[in-house]
Give the backbone structure.
Amino acid sequence: MINKKMASLLNEQFGKELYASNLYLSISSYFENQSLEGFANFFIVQSDEEHGHAMRIFDYLHDVDAKIEMPAIAKPPDKFKSTVHAFEETLKQEKQNSKDIYTLVKQSLKDNEFATHTFLQWFVSEQVEEEASIKRILEQLNMIGNNKSALFLLDKDLSNRKATTE
Ligand code: FEO
């Protein structure tokens, strides 16, 4: 069992994860259009992971006998000024998502929703990793500046990324 407010907040988070999945598809397409296939791959994997996060919530809500309401998903941006800008937008998205997860954690404690509190711990750890990995790439991009050979090497490196979560 889960209280209505907690279920509704988790349902909203389900929608936010789907939005993130679409945003990262949009960023992947931006990179595809520039033949930066490693970056495009990185964001396909990122998008799959976000879909996986949404599905974790989907499954959990069913496990605790709550109903899923399919949320309207806003259109994500599809224009980015540069590689750095796309990663800045990604970091912004992840920071906001961390805040959203913390709000859910606070609510679970306030309402004595202990099972949900435990469920959310996976997301807390995941956000630390996600922010760190995006920050690292952003720092590398800032180091690279206009060096096309270095960008090519980073693109090659990112083509190796494979999904690590379901
Ligand atoms: Fe589902 Fe990137 O957080």
About this structure: The pocket of MU-OXO-diiron is lined by residues 17, 20, 50, 53, 94, 97, 130 (CB under 6 Å).
